[in-house]
Amino acid sequence: MNRTRAIGAGVAICLGASVFAKVNLGDFKSDLAAKVEAANKANTSVVAGQDGWLFFAPELRHLSVGTFWGDAAKNVSRATNPTRADPLPAILDFSQQLKKAGIDLLIVPVPGKASIYPEMIDPGAVNSESTRLDASDAEFVGVLKQNGVNVLDLVPPFLQFRKDHPDMPLYSKEDTHWSGYGIGLASDLVAEQVKREAWYGSIPKVKFSSQTGSVQVKGDLVQLMTGTQPGPEAIVLTAVKDDKGAAVQSSRPSPLLLLGDSHNLIYSTGDDMLATSSGFPENVAAKIEFAPDVIAVRGSGATPARINLARRADNMAGKKMVVWCFTVREFTEGTGWGKVPVIKPGQ
């Protein structure tokens, strides 16, 4: 049996390992659900795993709920408006708007940390491309592709990278976001797709300089804890500067828009985003050799990000491609999925 131990309200919750190895999806989902319930009772959103790894309870909940679109959406979504519980209609609507305007869409859902490093939250759990512990996320990616939406499924390359580079974690142990290594791999994969676009060759290129080094950060999960907190974590980041040594700036005229949540801000904008010039936008810029336009929202990259895009009221003039990057927990744990008219005919 699992044992629950509350470390303190607002601190973290840590459950002992079951005596049985968790090798199937049902066991894994049940264990995550138990951890989320214990965290709720302890009034904390932080769940302590193995070897100093911390996990966000809403992410664990997302991975535990199963199917989250269609008729099932209203039963599992945390959206306050039940008409916005299902992510599928809003995503398809956005995709169709862009297609009609001749703009390509690439959706990049960032996998939950627990789906790539499951044994750090549930000892004995094993994820693989053939037996995925994020089965519902994988199925939803398939649904999107069947509906003509281009999706970059990061799970297979993340699992392969983890296997090939066991000492290069793709996530921060103490933060909800990816690490510099995660950013590096994701930006490589996005850059590959951008470079396949017919318009790419005609875009003026800029040379950027990159420097990789270790920095000490205090992740957002630590900051959610009260009482005794772990010390800062050393993570490896790649800082990118322009040819004058200045920070890479979001470029409104750019043909490429990076849209989404704080995965587009972490290590980029400083302050609570922990570092500057070392985030996803900068690393994408270095690899495609031009600066992207960036619209990113702390907290929710789903509807609020698209609302910010619509407020520009320019019908996305000059845009050729949108990379919509957000955490998978947004599918069930966010504010909901409304349709937003980002392109208005006749304007």
β-strand number: 11
Task: Output mean pLDDT.
Answer: 92
| Content of β-strand | 15-25%
The percent range for helix content is: 25-40%
Sum up the overall morphology in one term. globular
Biggest β-sheet strands, sense, barrel: 5 strands, parallel
Order of helices and strands: EEHEEHHHEHHEHHEHEEHEHEH
Gyration radius from CA atoms, angstroms: 20 Å
Helix segment tally: 12
Lateral strand order in the biggest sheet: 6-5-11-9-10
Catalogue the unreliable spans: 1-11, 15-22
How widely separated are the two ends?
Answer: 62 Å
- Supply the helix-strand structural class: alpha/beta
Characterization of the model:
This protein is an alpha/beta fold and 347 residues long. The protein is built from twelve helices and eleven strands. It has helices at residues 25-41, 57-64, 73-76, 87-100, 113-116, 135-146, 155-164, 180-195, 220-223, 280-288, 303-311, 330-333; strands spanning 4-6, 13-15, 46-48, 54-56, 104-110, 150-151, 209-217, 233-241, 256-260, 293-296, 321-327. Strands 6-5-11-9-10 form a five-stranded parallel β-sheet. Strands 1-2 form a two-stranded antiparallel sheet. Strands 3-4 form a two-stranded antiparallel ribbon. Helix 1 runs antiparallel to helix 2 (57-64) and helix 8 (180-195) runs parallel beside helix 10. The protein is globular and about 50 Å long. The chain starts with a strand and ends in a 14-residue tail after the last helix. Mean pLDDT is 92; it is low at 1-11 and 15-22.
